[in-house]
Write a structure and sequence with these properties.
The chain has seven helices and no strands. The protein has 174 residues and is mainly alpha-helical. Keywords: Cell membrane, Membrane, Transmembrane, Transmembrane helix.
């Protein structure tokens, strides 16, 4: 079943690479770094420029890591963090269904990434070259906890930085 794992890794990882390049370079009709920075500002993810660059690089790099099957639980955790943050900041208020702007697609990607981390990337992977074609339940749990934890940390830091920015702007108006 190794070919099935490779197929899932290439499709899911490739989609994340494309999604990251949309944010980073404006590829595939994306907003580019400037547009991603504006989105981060609107979501109170300060500092906006740094968060825009971080998400763009994380999605691009971790997507490539999934494709290659390299450090699978770690890169899956990074992508899960991005998806959990998207759900929390953008999609949750719209309910589950994607047709209403909900988190259906994000949930499928999160579940797929947990499964990839748990089941491992298979024999045709970088991880397998180091004896880790399968990570087991611990790998999946690690990826999920890393993703959820990093999302909560980044959102909280963004809120605090946005509040500090508002206070600084108000002091400048006095």
């Amino acid at each position: 079943m190794s070919w099935g794992r490779v197929l899932v890794r290439v499709v899911v990882g490739g989609i994340f690479v494309g999604h990251g390049l949309q944010k980073l370079k404006g590829s595939f009709g994306g907003p580019g770094l400037e547009g991603t920075e504006k989105m981060m500002e609107s979501l109170e993810m300060e500092p906006a420029r740094e968060n825009a660059l971080a998400v763009a690089l994380a999605e691009t790099g971790a997507g490539a890591g999934i494709v290659l099957g390299a450090a699978t639980p770690v890169v899956a955790g990074g992508l899960i963090g991005s998806m959990v943050t998207a759900v929390r900041k953008v999609h949750a208020k719209n309910g589950i269904w994607n047709s209403n702007g909900g988190y259906e697609y994000n949930a499928v990607l999160i579940a797929t990434l947990v499964a990839i981390a748990a089941e491992g990337p298979g024999r045709a992977s970088v991880d397998a070259m180091f004896g880790k074609s399968r990570w087991g339940g611990g790998g999946g749990l690690f990826a999920l906890l890393l993703g959820v934890g990093s999302s909560f940390a980044v959102v909280e830091m963004g809120k605090r930085a946005a509040e500090q920015k508002r206070l600084a702007d108000n002091d400048g108006e006095s």
